[in-house]
């Protein structure tokens, strides 16, 4: 199973919520998961109702079965200082560069440096081992940039490797790119059953495939239940005012006649939504990747909701041996 799980998605699809739920699902049964944020929005802290994440790994949740979820907000400037210390042993000189503004310049101006630092830090966490020899984390889940930027974000290491053809930067970029394109990584795209998110998901998957990045699953989020059966949905598209009025009268509702039109309008709207979702499900099937589905949380994405979504993911096979990687899922 892929140990680096990258979660992207169009804005508004709930990718951060899905990444958080995935980290809980993977930590079930005693596993340790690191949930990584790279956009500086502190969305993970808000979901888990904790204080802002520092640039250090901190436990934020306990999963069923005793597993643990840690979280890290990667800061590009701090990551660059780590990098300079790792390869050049700059120590205090690195901090001096920060005071002079050189660190901010490098992470803002230099082509690809910021993204290679962010992805490199996540890959380092995946490969890190304890003194006893085992991995520090069983899985690392990255709450990545949106679908429109995900391929460039992950593939930027190739660009950096092309600019720096020798030395530590070149070697680091090549090592990261090799890991990101290996079966150790799976990139999932979160979508809704709506036309624009599904189209963006299809485009994103095509871009990932074209650059050799490993596609995981399309994760359909906020799926609403169908409260009417197929016959009722078909009936809602016709004129059944008298039948509905008679049914309401038969159960003794005094205001039955006033409720007929609103009920028919709601039924017709539900029928339209069901049909639109059917069309988008068909569109997703043509993409050729397996899917997970997560329900709409009526009470919002609070901690209880995250645990519910994690249970849904486990029920659909998340964490099972043999899943994950290219075209296989989480």
UniProtKB/TrEMBL annotation:
Name of this chain's protein: Arsenical pump-driving ATPase
Key words of the record: Hydrolase
Annotated InterPro entries: ArsA/GET3_ATPase-like (IPR025723), ATPase_ArsA/GET3 (IPR016300), P-loop_NTPase (IPR027417)
Location of the ArsA/GET3 Anion-transporting ATPase-like domain: 5-175
Entry's EC annotation: 3.6.3.16
Organism: Streptomyces laurentii
Lineage of the species this protein comes from: Bacteria, Bacillati, Actinomycetota, Actinomycetes, Kitasatosporales
Any one GO molecular function term: ATP hydrolysis activity
Primary enzyme class: hydrolase
């Amino acid at each position: 199973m892929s140990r680096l799980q990258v979660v992207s998605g169009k804005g508004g699809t709930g990718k951060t919520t899905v990444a958080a739920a995935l980290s809980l699902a993977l930590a079930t049964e005693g596993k340790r998961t690191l949930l990584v944020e790279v956009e500086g929005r502190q969305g993970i802290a808000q979901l888990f109702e904790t204080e802002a994440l520092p640039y250090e790994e901190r436990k934020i949740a306990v999963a069923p079965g005793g597993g643990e979820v840690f979280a890290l907000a990667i800061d590009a400037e701090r990551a660059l200082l780590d990098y300079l210390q790792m390869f050049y042993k700059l120590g205090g000189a690195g901090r001096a560069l920060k005071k002079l503004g050189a660190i901010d310049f490098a992470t803002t101006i230099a082509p690809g440096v910021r993204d290679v630092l962010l992805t490199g830090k996540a890959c380092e966490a995946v490969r890190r081992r304890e003194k006893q020899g085992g991995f520090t984390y069983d899985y690392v889940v990255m709450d990545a940039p949106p679908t429109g930027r995900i391929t460039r974000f992950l593939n930027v290491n190739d660009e950096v490797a092309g600019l720096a053809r020798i030395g530590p930067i070149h070697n680091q970029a090549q090592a990261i790119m090799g890991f990101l394109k290996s079966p150790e990584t799976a990139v999932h795209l979160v979508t809704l059953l709506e036309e624009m998110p599904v189209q963006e998901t299809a485009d994103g998957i095509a871009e990932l495939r074209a650059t050799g990045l490993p596609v995981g699953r399309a994760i359909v989020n906020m799926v609403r239940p169908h409260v009417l059966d197929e016959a009722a949905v078909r009936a809602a598209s016709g004129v059944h005012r008298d039948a509905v009025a008679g049914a309401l009268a038969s159960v003794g509702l005094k205001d039955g006649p006033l409720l007929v039109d609103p009920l028919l309008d709601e039924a017709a709207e539900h029928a339209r939504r069901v049909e639109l979702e059917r069309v988008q499900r068909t569109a997703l099937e043509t993409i050729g990747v397996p899917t997970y589905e997560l329900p709409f949380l009526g009470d919002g994405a609070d901690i209880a909701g995250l645990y519910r979504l994690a249970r849904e993911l486990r029920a659909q096979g998340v964490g099972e041996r043999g899943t994950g990687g290219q075209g296989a899922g989480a």
